[in-house]
Structure formats: C-alpha cells, structure tokens
C-alpha cells in the first residue's frame, strides 16, 4: 500500500541544537545553553552539584553555536527543498521570544527571525511543523522559579504559545505543545528544568511538573482551536516498544507496568483528556504525595477540554524489560536503560535497531487512541567518515531508514492513519543526550567537530539523494 498523496515527508530539528546565536538579537539563556557538551552530559545534569551555572572553565557548551542555522537557514532550507521536503519540523526558542520567560512583552527581533524562517519554508511549499517547547525553556525559569514544578510557568508558557499561534495561524497549520514530554520519566532536566539541586530527584516534583505541563498544553490547544479551526495541535512523546525478556509472568507484568508508565501515561492525559486508571499505582510506586500535586477540578476540566488532534512521537529503539535478572546482559543504551536484546544489533551508542518495533508502535498507539499519528523523529546516530573524494557513504543510515519506512508501510496496510514522517536531524546538529557533533543523523554533513572546530560548510551525504528518491516516489522507491 502506498502512503496517502498528502503524506508529510520531511525532516526534524530543534532550535537549541542547531540555531546557535545564543546571545544575539535579544535572546536570553535557555536550559540548553547551560548543558555541558560530552558523553557525560546527562550524568552531569543528574549530579547534586549541578545548579544550572555555566562553567566555561571546566566545560564546553556546543549548543551556544550549534551549526549557526540562525545565519544559514536560507541555505539549509534550500537543501531541504532540493530533497523535496513536504514538511519541516522545527522548534521556536522560548528564550528568543521571552528572554527570561516571565516578561509580558515578546522580543520582536526574535519573532522576526521566525517570520523569515517560516516564509522561507513556504517559498518552497514546505509545511512548517512547529514544536512550541523543545528542551529549551528560559534558564531564568529553571533557576529563579524552580522549573515546571512551579505553577507560575503555566501562565508564562501559555503567553508564549498564544503569541506564536496568533502571529502564525495563517502560515502554520501543524503544532506540538511539548517535545518528548514523557522524557522526564528518566531525565527531567531537559523538559522540566528539574535537576537534583532544584528538586528533580523527588518524583513528587516530576509529577507536579507534568500536571502543570498538561494544564498549560491543554490551555494552548483550546486557545488554538478557538482561534482558528484549521489548526492541528498535537502532543509529542517518546515511544519505546518494550518487550519482556522471557515468558516469566513476573517479567510480563513488569513490562506492562513499564509500558503504561512510559508510553501511555502522558499520552492518555493529552489525548483522552483524563488521568489513566493506573495513576494512583504510579504515585504509590514513586512515593508521590498526591495532595501536593495541586490538581484542582478546574485543572481537570481544562485538561478535558484541551485534547490534541494527533500524536507526534519519536521512535529510535526498542527496549527489553527483566525484573528477575536471570540470564540478562545490560543494554549499551544509557538513555532508556533496559537489558540487551539478543536478537537485535545496536548502534554505536547502544540503541537497539528494531524496525519491526516501529510497526508495533504504530499499531499500538493507533489501536489505543484512534487519532492520526505523526512520526516526527526517527534516525540513526552514527560516526560519518568523509572519504578522500569528499563523499560520505552512509549506507548504514540508508539501510536503517529504509527498513523503518518499510515498517511504516506495513502499519498503513494494517489500517493505521499516518500523517507523515520527519526523520531526526535531517542536517547534522548537536546531540541532545551527549552534546556531540560526532553523533550524526543528517542527510547533510556539517563540517564541525565536537569542539566546534571546522569550516561549518554543508555537504550532501549519499543518503541525501536516496531520501530525495523516496520522497519523489511517495515511499515506493526505497
């Protein structure tokens, strides 16, 4: 079965990982600007000493410069257009619009940049797909307000969202409120601004932050729907297909619990408009004091009225659950954990490569929620080698993407309503989990190393022309 004729083929990025220009034209600091580069990034964020202070004497901060998309966006979008993109998913840097996050008037210079970026997309008939908040909340909101556990952030976020929705309602149809909102299950620093020094190691704060984000998201969605009936507003989460290591009922139950917590909890609230039945069990598991969460009847009414139109999600890998620990080997994956799957190969970063798991994910999500799905991140992070003739022969990336697209096609055949596919890091950018440039995802190579050295020139990889033919054929020529 072929994909529908208006299928949104494209690519995805995030402002904090590619724009650079971290302190010009009135932009304030974001939490991403305070995240050190290197493989120990998440470990540093999880340490008790980390307090969002930028320490250039001991660390590097690659997000400050990114790939300078801020000054190269016309060149980059022209390359996306050459590949035939129908959609480009990107985010707006919150601190570029509200530098400290708590202002009442937006920074017009920041908005002017996105005016130009959106118009450049539309010039090539590329649909902008905007993530309102993508791991880049203003640093002031994490340091002065304590991150998303503070209810005041609801007002600040909704003000930010309203500015964007009102300004771009006639140019941007597709929106997502928060990037990978369920990532706080494992690392709350990126999405909630919570680290141990401001309460991130207390699960009550994590669940409180989630509740505040749910209310903020619902308010933004309802505002968007009331503003313009043509707008499509979605949620966005990580989906990790999760298998039990064996048929032991203990492991099967542990797997079910893991799936409910990670894959369903946030989606249930944002899609169904209510907390799921297993919420109380989750609270007990994590020692959460429900009374501290400040969940009011008015909040629940807002959540019920602000349900999303589609589910955007990222899919990179599957995981394996084992509670008994018998015969297992630890996974090389340092992000989502789990144990090693003996039937799958792993990427250079220990992420299990599982195209069939994407078909499973699509069927699972569509069967549970019955609303359109949008794969807004998928891809292979790898070390690319520039050959003597200047080419990058990334057949391993082509193979990865080809098999995942084949699984998408099978899911569509299964009856899943799939809107589009925007592989992650369509142009090389700074990795969110490690702050590295060497962990590359793009169809376009950017000549920068982990220390920011290089020409910053753009080069097409072998996958560039391959993806062009995929789009040209609407997914039939792989």
Describe the fold and architecture.
The protein has 478 residues and is α/β, with parallel strands linked by helices. The chain has a single domain, classed as TIM Barrel (Alpha-Beta Barrel). It contains 15 helices and twelve strands. It has helices at residues 15-18, 41-45, 69-83, 94-97, 108-123, 139-143, 152-168, 188-192, 203-227, 249-272, 279-285, 297-305, 355-369, 395-414, 462-472, and strands spanning 8-12, 87-91, 127-133, 174-178, 232-238, 241-244, 310-314, 318-321, 373-377, 418-421, 444-446, 458-460. The strands form three sheets. It has an eight-stranded parallel β-barrel, surrounded by five helices. A two-stranded parallel sheet has the order 6-8. Strands 11-12 form a two-stranded antiparallel ribbon. The radius of gyration is 21 Å and the shape is globular. The mean pLDDT is 96.
Order of helices and strands: EHHHEHHEHHEHHEEHHHEEHEHEEEH
CATH class: Alpha Beta
Give the strand tally. 12
Alpha carbon gyration radius: 21 Å
Fourth-level CATH superfamily = Glycosidases
The percentage helix is 25-40%
Mass-distribution shape: globular
Which topology does CATH recognise?
Answer: TIM Barrel
Number of domains: 1
Low-pLDDT stretches are: none
Mean pLDDT across all amino acids: 96
Helix segment tally: 15
What assembly state would you assign to the polypeptide chains in this entry? single chain
The percent range for strand residues is: 5-15%
Q: What is the topology, as strand order, of the major beta sheet?
A: 1-2-3-4-5-7-9-10
Give the structural class.
alpha/beta
CATH architecture: Alpha-Beta Barrel
How can the largest sheet be summarized? 8 strands, parallel, barrel
N-end to C-end Cα span: 14 Å
């Amino acid at each position: 079965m072929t994909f529908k004729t208006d299928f949104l083929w494209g690519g995805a990025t995030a402002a904090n990982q590619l724009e650079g220009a971290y302190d010009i034209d009135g932009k304030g600091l974001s939490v991403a600007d305070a995240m050190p580069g290197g493989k120990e990034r998440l470990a540093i964020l999880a340490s008790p000493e980390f307090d969002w202070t930028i320490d250039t004497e001991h660390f590097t901060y690659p997000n400050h410069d990114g790939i300078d998309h801020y000054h190269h966006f016309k060149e980059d979008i022209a390359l996306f257009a050459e590949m035939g993109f129908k959609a480009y998913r990107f985010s707006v840097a919150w601190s570029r619009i509200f530098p400290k996050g708590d202002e009442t008037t937006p920074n017009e210079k920041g908005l002017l940049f996105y005016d130009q970026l959106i118009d450049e997309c539309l010039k090539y008939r590329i649909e902008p797909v905007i993530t309102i908040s993508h791991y880049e909340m203003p640093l002031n909101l994490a340091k002065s307000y304590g991150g998303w556990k503070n209810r005041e952030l609801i007002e600040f976020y909704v003000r930010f969202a309203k500015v964007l929705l009102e300004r771009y309602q006639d140019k941007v149809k597709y929106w997502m409120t928060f990037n990978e909102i369920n990532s706080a299950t494992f690392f709350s620093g990126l999405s909630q601004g919570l680290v141990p020094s401001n309460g991130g190691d207390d699960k009550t704060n994590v669940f409180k932050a989630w509740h505040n984000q749910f209310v903020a998201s619902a308010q933004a969605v309802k505002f968007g729907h009331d503003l313009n009936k043509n707008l499509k507003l979605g949620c966005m989460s990580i989906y990790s297909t999760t298998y039990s290591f064996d048929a032991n009922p203990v492991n099967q139950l542990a797997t079910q619990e893991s799936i409910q917590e990670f894959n369903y909890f946030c989606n249930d609230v944002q899609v169904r408009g209510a907390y799921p039945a297993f919420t109380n069990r989750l609270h007990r598991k994590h020692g959460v004091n429900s009374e501290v969460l400040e969940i009011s009847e008015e909040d629940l009414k807002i959540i019920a009225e602000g349900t999303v139109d589609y589910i955007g999600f990222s899919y990179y890998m599957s995981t394996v659950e084992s509670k008994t620990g018998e015969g297992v080997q630890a996974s090389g994956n340092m992000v989502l954990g789990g144990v090693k799957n003996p039937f799958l190969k792993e990427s250079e970063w220990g992420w299990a490569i599982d195209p069939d798991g994407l078909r499973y994910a699509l069927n699972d999500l569509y069967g549970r929620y019955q609303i359109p799905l949008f794969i807004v991140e998928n891809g292979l992070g790898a070390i690319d080698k520039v050959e003597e003739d200047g080419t990058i022969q990334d057949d391993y990336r082509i193979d990865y993407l080809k098999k995942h697209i084949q699984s998408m096609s099978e899911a569509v055949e299964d009856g899943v309503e799939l809107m589009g596919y925007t592989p992650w890091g369509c142009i090389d950018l700074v990795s969110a989990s490690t702050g590295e440039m060497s962990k590359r995802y793009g169809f376009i190579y950017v000549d920068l190393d982990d220390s920011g050295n290089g020409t910053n020139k753009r080069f097409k990889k072998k996958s560039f022309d391959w993806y062009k033919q995929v789009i040209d054929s609407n997914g039939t020529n792989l």
